[in-house]
Structures are given as C-alpha cells and as structure tokens.
Design brief:
The complex is a heterotrimer. Chain A has an 11-stranded antiparallel β-sheet with strand order 6-5-4-3-2-1-11-10-9-8-7. In chain A, 19% of the residues lie in helices and 42% in strands. Chain A is an alpha+beta fold. Chain A has 5 helices and 19 strands. Chain B is mainly alpha-helical. Chain B has 8 helices and 1 strand, in the order ααααααβαα. Chain C is mainly alpha-helical. In chain C, helix 1 crosses helix 2, helix 6 packs across helix 8 and helix 7 crosses helix 8. Chain C is globular, with a radius of gyration of 18 Å. Chain C starts with a helix and ends with a helix. The chains are: A alpha+beta, B mainly alpha, C mainly alpha. Chains in contact: A-B, A-C, B-C. Chains B and C meet through helix 1, helix 3 and helix 4 of B and helix 2, helix 3, helix 5, helix 6 and helix 8 of C.
C-alpha cells in the first residue's frame, strides 16, 4: 500500500471504530436486575393462575380526567370475572376466559369483545426496554409484599407482589410524563377460594371462528384483505413486531400489524375505505398521500392518513408525533402486489 | 461575568444545579471577587443554620381527636358539578381542541391535522383487546374502558 | 421505595369520603407532621393539638388537592401554615418565645440566650417564606430529604425544586443577615 494512503485509512478505521463503540454504547439496553425480572414473571403467571376473590380500587386515565371505580373480582386458572360496583358503569360485568372477553351491561346487553390472545411473558422485551428493579419490602392488607418497578423512557410499571402467592396486589402503569395511566389496588383479598367456574358465554358473545386469533403470514393477510399491505419503516424505540392479524367488521376487513415493547402495544391498522375521501388538504401532501390526522384515544393517540386507497391508522400509548412518524413511514410490505 | 449576574446564580451554584459552563464561570468570578466570595459564604452559613428536625412521637394517640372532628365527606360541589356537566365539558374541550388545532394548523402548516374526535369505538376496542393480551394486563382497568365504549358490536339484548 | 401507587389510591379514596383510607394516611404522616410542628412550637402538648388541627383541615380541604401524589408536600404546607397562623393569633409579644424555657433572663447564660435567639430567628425566617419555598426548604433542610426525593414526593421537576430552594435560601440569607454576615 502506498504510503500516502496509510494515514487517511488509519484515521477512517479509527473513526469507524469509535463510531461503532459509541453506537454500541448508546444502544446498550439498561440493565434489569435478574431477580426483579423473575419476580415480574412470577407475578404475570400468578395473575392468570392463582385463585382469588377480592375487591379492587381502580383508577383509569381518560380524556376527561381520571375515572375511579371499585369492583369485585373473582379470578384464577385463566378465568376472570369482574363486577363493577361504583362509577358510571356500576352493575356491568366483564368475563375473560380462554383468551376471549365479553361483557354484560347492567341492562343485560351483551358486548362481544373477541379474542385477546394471552401473550406469554417476554423476558427479552421487558429486559431490553425497561429497567426492572426490586424495591423495598412492605405490607399490604397484612401480607408481606415486595415492590418491583420497571422503568423505561416509555413509562413505568410498578407492582406490589404478594410474597406468599406471587399475586400482584397493586399494579400501576404510568406514561412517559409519569402521569398515571391506570392503576389497580386490591383493598380486600381472599386466597382461600377456588377459581371461578368455567363459564358458558352467552350466545351473543360467541365470537365465531377465531379469526384474528391466529397470527397470519403477511402474504396470507394480504390475500385475505384484498389490498396491498403497508408496513412502517420507522418504529419507536423498543417496539418489536408481534404479528399480522385479520380483523373482520360487518362489511370490511382490517389488517392489523401489532407491535409491542413489553408493556405497551402499537397497532398499525389498515383498511380500504373508499367512502372516506381525501380531506381538504388533499393534493398538497407529499407523494400523493392524504393529510395526517391525529386523534385522542382512551389511552394515548391515533394517527390516521390515507395512502392511495388505503386508510392507515396507527394507535398507541405514545405521543402523537411519534405515531404520525410511524404512519408517515409506511411502505408496501411485499414485493409482489395482488 | 459581572457581580450582579453572579449573585443571582450563587444559590443555584451552591446547590450544584448549574451546568458545567455556567458553574465554571461562577467559580472563576468568585475566585477573583471578594464580595461575591463573602456572599457565597453567607449563603453557606444560612444553609448550615437550618438544622435537621429531631424525630419525635406524639405524646398520645391523636387519631381519636381527629376522627371526632371529621365531618362526613362527600364529593365537593365542584366534583358534583363536574360530574353533571362532564358531557358538556367534554364537548367544550373538544371544541376548544378543534379551535386550537385549526389555529395551530394555520400557523404551523399542513403537516399534521389534529382532530378533535376521539378514536371510533371499534378502533378503541382493538387497542384495548391488544393491550389486554399483553402480560400483566390490568383486567379491571381495561374492562371498565371496554364496557364504556359506545355502539358496541354485538351489543344486542 | 415506590409507594406512590398506594398513596394515590388512598388519597382518591379519602376524597370520596373513605375515613379508613384517611386514617391510613394519618398514620403514615402523623410522625413527620408532629415532629415538624414540634420543631416550631417547642411544646409537646401544643404540637399535638396543632397536629390534630392539620389533619382535620386536610380532611376538609382534600377536594382542593389537584395532584394526589403531591399529598406529602401539600400536607406539610398545611402544617406550616397552621403553625404560622397560630403564632399570628397567639398575641404574644415575642410569639416565638413559646419555645424558650421559662427562665428569668438573668439566669440564662449569654451563650444559651444567643443560641436561642438565633434558633428563634431561623424558625421565624422559615415560617415567613412563601409557601412554595417553605415546603421545599422544610423537606430538604429540616427533614433531610435529598433534592431528588423531594422532587419525586412533590411530583415536580428537579429544576423547579432546585430553583425554589435557591430562592428560599436567598430570602433566608437576607432575613438572617445579622447571623451570617461576617463581622468587620
């Protein structure tokens, strides 16, 4: 190698090495304590399995302010029965069983919820995105508990785990600005009960064939919805693909691409809605895209825009700017169209 | 930095709350200025004067006395008012958001158009169901959001 | 560690009229409030009475608390207000003399008298601070909490706590000039 290239090459290599180290350091995940992770995993399992009857005080952040309610809970073995005792929906009941959810209003009307597949505890996601730490020990309802907190840029999950059963007697989620998103605290608890019986879902609550229960391949999903699937090329930090799902509405089919970061979900929902034409700003957007609209959701926001004939809605407990960025970044997913 | 600027920042400097550049500038000035040095010393002595409390326990149990004087509490008039007018408030807030959204749009340009509407309930339901499938899902909280959705699919008697 | 979830629940419940939840809050904070009040008034019986006043008033005013997580700071502000009001209405010639032992002036050695005088002045200076500054000065200096913990307990950004502390220190430095300025 001629002498004249040696120095610039050495400099280039040094810069690359330093850059690689810097990037590596930046991307290095915050470390979670293994014991804290183990306790969270134990709590996740106990929440599903341990038979318990109790009363909870729940606070949920809504667009119009915090909603505080009290409910009776009976759960265990993957089943849960909740009856709301106070607040605007007093008397309503919610049932969860085998990955299905349905609800009964006080006037008897049944609301079908559909499948909510229970995702197994994902150590890697939590460990990557949230730093889990063991907190102090304390007492709750006369029972020894251990506090465990997972904190990340996206928010915080705080648990008080009952030492005897592993059941979380307190569960608090906060958003990035540390405002409370939702929180449930057991004010009465009885572990001596058996799990609720297996319930017969009322006829109206039958969900039908479990479409949307199974994650599909992108090709299969694209074939079933009948339009070209788009997928984001930008994702907020920490989010990983969980799967492609089909959701059927009365006259429409929706494609749902689901991402999660261990504690929150991000949904990219796509549908053909030719009725919803381009808004007043149409034509001024880049690349024949419609304007971006941002809406409030119960928890977080949604960003919606029209891309060609496809409406793309990005939903998540994230700042609207992030969701808009995700929506802006969608491109066709598969090389071959239909 | 001049004395007047430095004296304003001395207290923060003492608390270690200035950024590196500012702290260095203050330190440099203080090293050369007797008056500011004396001021800093005075601030330090002030802090020293504030001695920590001694832990102490009440001489008797005070709860009974407190409880006796507690009048039954209901939601205050403000809370009650807010409850009754919540729908109107929600509409008012939505209109305000819409108005500010349009104003913002006019000022910022067409990049993002904030909409006042809440996401349609079917998408809310999707979000709730997706969140429900995550580990450590808060059933009671998600459940109340779920039953509060309007125009539910499958809502038939 | 992080009990703020349980605290928020208790405050929400107490706001709805749940006396049992309020009793929980009482038991959690009575020690700190009593110690704080005693520091200012010196007399255990009087401190006990005023502590009760603090919690009775807290129960009445709970609806005005906007951030349930900031209950601790709000309660301390209530307590220092009650202490300050007590001194104002107590109609003593030197109100802060409550804490001085009832000893004839001639019997008190000069160093002790000077110390008492200084302590009285410091307490008065704290009570005269505006409420925002007073609360953080009490929590950081008198209770010995670190700035980060004060910020967490009050639900405020650290920068706000620091700036309130700074303003508080400056104000106290002026009020206590005769004790902190160098002679000569």
């Amino acid at each position: 190698m001629s002498g004249r290239w040696k120095l610039p090459l050495a400099v280039a290599v040094a810069v690359l090495v330093i850059a690689a180290i810097a990037i590596g350091i930046r991307l290095r995940p915050p470390r979670s304590e293994p014991q804290a992770l183990a306790l969270m995993a134990r709590a996740a399992g106990a929440l599903d399995e341990v038979p318990v009857r109790g009363v909870v005080e729940t606070i949920v952040e809504t667009p119009t302010g915090p909603l505080e309610i009290r409910a009776e809970v009976h759960r265990g073995r993957g089943r849960a029965h909740i009856k709301y005792l106070s607040g605007p929906r007093a008397g309503a009941e919610v049932f969860k069983q085998a990955g299905q959810v349905w609800a009964k209003a006080p006037d008897g009307r049944v609301r079908r919820g559909g499948p909510c597949r229970d995702i197994a505890w994902q150590d890697t996601l939590i460990e990557r995105n949230y730093r889990a730490r063991l907190g102090a020990r304390g007492t709750m309802l006369g029972r020894p508990v251990t506090y465990v907190t997972s904190e990340g840029p996206a928010g915080l999950l705080n648990l008080a785990v009952d030492e005897a059963t592993g059941f979380p007697l307190l569960m608090t989620r906060r958003g990035p600005a540390r405002g409370m998103a939702m929180s449930t605290l057991y004010s009465e608890v009885d572990f001596s009960v058996s799990a609720p019986p297996e319930m017969e879902p009322p006829a109206e609550a039958a969900v039908g064939p479990l479409q949307g229960e199974q994650a599909l391949t992108p090709e299969e999903l694209q074939r079933r919805v009948g339009f070209r699937l788009l997928a984001p090329t930008y994702l907020p930090r920490g989010f990983q693909l969980q799967g492609y799902y089909l959701r059927e509405r009365r006259h429409r089919k929706l494609a749902e691409i689901r991402y999660a970061d261990g504690l929150r979900v991000l949904l990219v929902v796509e549908t053909r809605m030719p009725g919803r034409g381009p808004g007043p700003m149409a034509g001024r957007g880049r690349r024949h895209r419609g304007p971006m609209e941002v809406m409030r959701a119960w928890q977080g926001h949604a960003a919606r825009r029209l891309v060609g004939d496809t409406t793309v809605i990005v939903i998540g407990s994230l700042p609207s700017k992030e969701l808009a960025r995700v929506a802006d970044s969608v491109r066709p997913l598969l090389r071959s169209s239909l | 930095m001049r004395c007047k600027q430095v004296t304003e920042k001395l207290a923060e400097y003492q608390l270690g709350a200035l950024d590196e550049a500012e702290a260095a500038a203050v330190a440099e000035h203080v090293a050369q200025c007797a008056r500011c040095r004396a001021e800093l010393a005075a601030l330090e002595r002030t802090a020293e004067l504030l001695e920590p409390l001694e832990p102490a326990s009440p001489p008797r149990d005070l709860w009974a006395g407190v409880k006796r004087r507690m009048r039954p509490r209901r939601a205050t008039a403000w809370d009650a008012l807010a409850m009754r007018w919540r729908p109107a408030l929600a509409v008012g807030v939505a209109l305000l958001v819409l108005a500010s959204g349009l104003a913002w749009l006019a000022l910022r340009g067409p990049a993002v158009q904030p909409s006042s509407e809440l996401l349609a309930s079917e998408y809310q339901e999707q979000q709730i169901m997706a969140q429900w499938g995550q580990p450590l899902a808060d059933d009671a909280a998600l459940g109340i959001m779920f039953v509060s959705l309007e125009n539910g699919e499958g809502g038939r008697r | 560690m992080n009990n703020t979830g349980a605290l928020a629940h208790a405050v929400h419940a107490a706001r709805r009229g749940d006396e049992r939840a309020f009793e929980g809050l009482f038991r959690a904070y009575q020690g700190a409030i009593y110690a704080l009040v005693l520091h200012f008034v010196g007399d255990p019986e009087l401190a006990a009475d005023l502590t009760q006043d603090v919690f009775v008033r807290a129960w009445e005013k709970l609806g005005r608390l906007r951030e349930p997580e900031a209950f601790g700071g709000w309660l301390r502000a209530l307590a220092t207000n009650i202490v300050r009001d007590h001194f104002r209405t107590a109609r003593q010639t030197d109100p802060l003399d409550e804490s001085a032992p009832i000893v004839a002036e001639t019997e008190e050695p000069p160093e002790q008298a000077a110390t008492h005088e200084r302590e009285r002045a410091v307490r008065a200076a704290v009570l005269e601070l505006p409420e925002h500054q007073r609360t953080v000065v009490v929590m950081h200096h008198l209770e010995g909490k670190r700035v980060d913990d004060v910020a967490a307990e009050l639900g405020l950004p650290k920068g706000t706590v620091v700036s309130r502390l700074a303003r508080g220190r400056e104000a106290m430095r002026r009020k206590l000039a005769r004790f902190v300025d160098e002679e000569g």
